[in-house]
Automatic annotation (TrEMBL):
Protein name per the record: Putative glutamate--cysteine ligase 2
Signal peptide boundaries: none
Transmembrane spans: none
Molecular-function GO term, any one: glutamate-cysteine ligase activity
EC number annotated for this UniProt entry: 6.3.2.2
Family as reported in the entry's similarity comment: Belongs to the glutamate--cysteine ligase type 2 family. YbdK subfamily.
């Protein structure tokens, strides 16, 4: 059974006003003070956010328990520092982000200007174990068309600087300003992958391998592939569904590689169209179907993803949970749908944030 680990980025906000607060230093100090062993929490580019990472898990119920526990811990540490945490991929309320004081963060701000300064976004990164770089790159080549569907499912950032952006995932549009972000070409082999990574580093535009911001990449720390395309999910069970589907995608792609099936030859330009469509529409309209790159209803495309990984989910025992989770998501809507519904009912972005603070714990 492949192991799965999740990294979630959370916003720090004022519990009453919903405005982001630059309190990550204080929150992380609380987290380190109460940690038993290695601390699960880390800083991020901006002081208005924190990140946590789960342990590698093979059981999805255990992963769900840990995600909820970490969110509750984050809320407790934030409360002790005078803040709250919320799983929103962008701040609905206006904010002037504060870049962290670390050397790396200061370098990013200096090199990339407004791209770094305005990059207060929260994503969800899912790691799935692979047996080798060769298997990992084979998986990367074969999951390319499906990544936009994951973005649509997770979309949770309709508001930007106090306005409705018109997108379900405006985070992905902001994130796409980085020069190394987005979908990539088929690599064909681990050797070719590493050659291209080195070619990017040789440009000296990127500081290090940590700035390889592909939608999915080989991790430079762990024997995993890391799928980075998703918004942080408002509902922790949405994160578990995402992780379940991604593990299914990895197992399915690895099986295709072992069977000698080539990756779909879609050019990166088409994948960019699919990613834009997913960020714009989420689950509200049409998406580009990963098997044809033609527009079809979002629910049809989402269920095509489930059908694509059905065999892997049956083998891991996750099929029923994935069917139920996807059904609930399609019925209730993604985080963007929830936020817009709250805004329509309350007329207040502050109320949107404070309600989402409550929902972040699940």
């Amino acid at each position: 059974m492949r192991s799965v680990g999740v990294e979630e980025e959370l916003l720090l906000v004022d519990a009453e006003s919903g405005e982001p607060l630059a309190l990550s230093t204080a929150v992380l100090a609380m987290a380190h003070r109460h940690a038993e062993g290695e601390c699960a929490f880390e800083s991020e580019l901006h002081r208005q956010q924190v990140e946590f990472a789960t342990r590698p898990r093979t059981d999805m119920d255990e992963l769900a328990d840990e995600i909820i526990r970490r969110r509750v811990e984050a809320a407790g540490h934030a409360a002790n520092a005078g803040a709250a945490v919320v799983a929103l991929a962008t701040s609905p309320l206006p904010v002037s982000p504060t870049v962290g004081t670390g050397e790396r963060y200061q370098w990013l701000e200096q090199q990339f200007g407004l791209t770094a300064q305005e990059q207060l976004t929260c994503g969800c990164h899912v790691h799935v174990s692979v047996e080798s770089d060769e298997e990992g790159v084979a998986v990367l080549d074969r999951v390319r068309p499906w990544l936009s569907v994951l973005l649509a499912l997770s979309a949770n950032s309709p508001f930007w600087q106090g306005q409705d952006s018109g997108y379900n995932s405006y985070r992905s549009r902001v994130w796409g300003r980085w020069p190394s972000a987005g979908p990539v070409d088929v690599f064909g082999s681990a050797g070719r992958y590493h050659e291209q990574i080195q070619a990017l580093l040789d440009t000296e535009v990127l500081r290090d391998r940590g700035m390889i911001y592909f939608d999915a990449r080989l991790s430079h720390h762990y024997p995993t592939i890391e799928v980075r395309v998703a918004d942080v999910c408002l509902d922790p069970l949405g994160t578990v569904l995402l992780a379940t589907l991604i593990r299914g995608l990895v197992e399915t792609a690895a099986g295709e590689w072992r069977a000698g099936e080539p990756p779909a030859p879609f050019p990166t330009t088409l994948l960019r169209m699919a990613a834009w469509r997913a960020s714009r529409s989420g689950l509200d309209d049409r998406l580009l179907h990963p098997l044809t790159m033609h527009p079809e209803p979002a629910e049809t495309v989402a269920r095509a993803l489930l059908a694509h990984v059905r065999g892997a989910l049956e083998e891991s025992g996750d099929l029923k949970a994935a069917e139920d989770g996807l059904g609930s998501l399609l019925s209730a809507g993604n985080g963007a749908c929830v936020q817009r519904d709250l805004m329509q009912r309350t007329g207040s972005l502050r109320a949107v944030v404070t309600e989402c603070v409550r929902r972040t714990r699940g």
